[in-house]
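Today's session is about reading a structure prediction critically. Students often jump straight to the picture, but the first step is always the sequence itself: look for stretches that repeat, for charged clusters, for runs of hydrophobic residues. Only then move on to the predicted structure, which in these notes is written as discrete structure tokens rather than atom positions. Here is the chain we will use throughout the hour.
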Amino acid sequence: MNVMASGPAEIVVRHLSFDFSGLPEDWLGGARLATCFGNAGHVFIPLGEEFFIETVKQFRDRIDSDEQRRDVKAFIGQESVHKRAHEQMWALLRERGVPIDDFVQVIGAIRSVERFVPARLRLSVTAALEHYTAVFGYSFLTEELQTAVPDEMARLLAWHGLEELEHRAVAFDVLRLVDDGYLLRVAGFAVASGLLVIIPLTGTAIFAAADRTNRRRRRPSSFESGLGAMSARFAKRMSGHLVDYLRPGFHPSHLQMPPEAATWAAKLDRA
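Below is the predicted structure for this chain, in token form.
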């Protein structure tokens, strides 16, 4: 997929607060199963950010460039704030009977094998996952999120998406510095793709089973109509960008910052 490069974006660490106290139980598209998937995201994303930070930190002593060191520091700052923001949802989910601690234990068991995985492969997995999150971020900025989720959740997703795009090249550039081998990049992509199937679907299954057990009357949602078409656009966009990652000459800067990024950045920076 041919995408014009847009040049490096400034990596800005924004400290925002979110209020999810009025969030509907079926907040994603008004659908229970979709919301189980979304709730799983709020659990595995913070733990994923933790993995990214720990992995990139291992290679900071290999960086000689002041600019790259500055970018890595900003990357760690953004990911740390993302982790805390998504964890704000955990208390609310626990109150609603979502067994997030069971899912945390599953992710912990998966992460327990990390010590057997070479550090370079972990870095390659991180670079690939960062490409995934950048493409999701692109989608979050270009979609009318308010048609599928409440405004406060749309604000969280747009903010997170913008910052994923800003630091989209950081882990990849550290990987190139450490080991620029194509086979390592493909191996990391394969592992990352498997994790992005297994972990979210496991959390969704755990939460869906608990939802059936604890089923109770819920208010109708006004977001049911926007989810289907948006999901189809997400899938189409993801397939093109993921194939792009496998090109030998790929670099994350080939993914454009969409025009909406400047609008969202100004709005969030004012906040």
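Discussion point for the tutorial: Confidence is low (pLDDT under 50) at residues 1-7, 220-225.
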